[in-house]
Design goal:
The protein is an all-beta fold. 1% of the residues lie in helices and 70% in strands. It contains one helix and 19 strands. It has one helix spanning 314-318, and strands at residues 2-7, 14-27, 32-48, 53-68, 72-89, 92-109, 118-135, 138-148, 157-161, 164-167, 175-186, 190-202, 209-222, 225-238, 244-260, 263-272, 283-294, 298-305, 326-333. The chain has a 17-stranded antiparallel sheet, with no helix packed on it.
């Protein structure tokens, strides 16, 4: 990934560019696939009305090229245009934003001729609005946003009859409507946050569902040590012939220690009491990460994540194959710092 950022003046106008690519290759016996995913971003921001209003506008694009050996080739191209307005007046902050996305899909089964190439275009919108009030150590904010789920090719396939694939372009966009009320108390060494959220998922292939949550978190730092802890409780409602309700909680524990000489040691422990549908066990996630700064422009890291290594299904347990347990080693370079 490469980024470039430049401030154009002292009033806060600036430019930002980013481009990168992810590549994965899976050669398991049951599934052989390759995936290439480049993306790119160009963004500008500038103040108006004596810096009371800041406008951020940009373009983001991405392409996914997936090869599923012996099955098909799926391709996705998205182009986004987005704009966000931030208005500040005294202790009040108002934010409005809109993201327009144009998606193009292609699907080509390997055992069919060129005439079997299928393509489809669709447009979607994501919206956000928030109002905040900040005075002294206290801040309160109300947020509402509507986001959408990006479909995949299989979402447009109706059924298979004698090796014939029928596509359904009447697919309805699946939306997530989310509202949140958040309170924050902040001092030099401590940040305390409390929140109430409600999320409604609509136009799903399964029945619509809602999720209501209450949460609290605390971040405390002293010298080279920082500690974050938090807890959330959720109530999920799924609208079936008979109502289906579930209540569960999550816990987070995340210490960070600065070791000197550019070294940083951090860890994250997450627990989710919601039971897996098949295995009926809760989920535990744990990771340990070491960062090292090499001067001002370079950072290297090693991240041992998914240490808990819980199996996804009984089949994977018998195969002694565990979900995502891995060691990631990487480097970040900032050429314009």
């Amino acid at each position: 990934m490469a980024t470039y950022e430049r401030n154009l003046n002292e009033q806060g106008a600036g430019l930002y560019f980013e481009a990168g690519m992810n590549y994965s290759n899976n050669n398991l016996e049951s599934v052989k696939e390759r995936m290439a995913t480049p993306w790119w971003i160009a963004e500008c921001s500038f103040p108006l009305l004596k810096q009371a209003l800041t406008i951020t506008a940009g373009y983001e694009g991405g392409y996914t090229n997936g090869w599923y050996r012996g099955i098909n080739r799926e391709q996705y191209l998205y182009n986004d245009l987005y704009v966000q307005l931030n208005y500040k007046k005294g202790p009040w902050i108002i934010t409005l934003g809109d993201r327009f996305r144009h998606n193009t899909f292609w699907n080509k089964p390997y055992d069919k001729g060129e005439e079997s190439l299928w393509s489809h275009n669709r447009n979607d919108h994501a919206l956000i609005a928030s109002v905040g009030y900040h005075k002294g150590h206290h801040a309160i904010q109300g947020i509402f946003n509507r986001s959408f789920f990006n479909p995949v090719v299989s979402a447009f396939i109706d059924y298979l009859i004698e090796d014939h694939t029928q596509y359904n372009t009447d697919y309805k966009t699946q939306y997530a409507w989310r509202s949140e009320l958040r309170y924050t108390y902040q001092t030099e060494r401590m940040v305390v946050t409390g929140s109430a959220t409600h999320t409604l998922l609509t136009d799903l292939p399964t029945p619509n569902q809602s999720l209501t949550g209450l949460g609290a978190s605390v971040t405390w730092n002293k010298g080279s040590f920082r500690l974050t802890g938090g807890a959330n409780v959720y109530h999920q409602h799924i609208k079936l012939d008979e109502s289906n309700n579930d209540t569960f909680f999550t816990l987070k524990f995340a210490p960070t220690l600065l070791l000197g000489n550019g070294f940083r040691l951090s860890s994250v422990l997450l627990f989710n009491s919601k039971k897996d549908y098949f295995e009926q066990h809760a989920h535990l996630y744990a990771s340990v990460k070491v960062n090292k700064d090499l001067g001002r422009r370079c950072n290297v890291f090693a991240d041992f994540h998914d240490i808990a290594g819980q199996p996804e299904t009984t089949t994977l347990l018998l195969m002694q194959s565990y979900k995502n347990r891995a060691l990631t080693i990487g480097l970040t370079y900032y050429p314009w710092r």
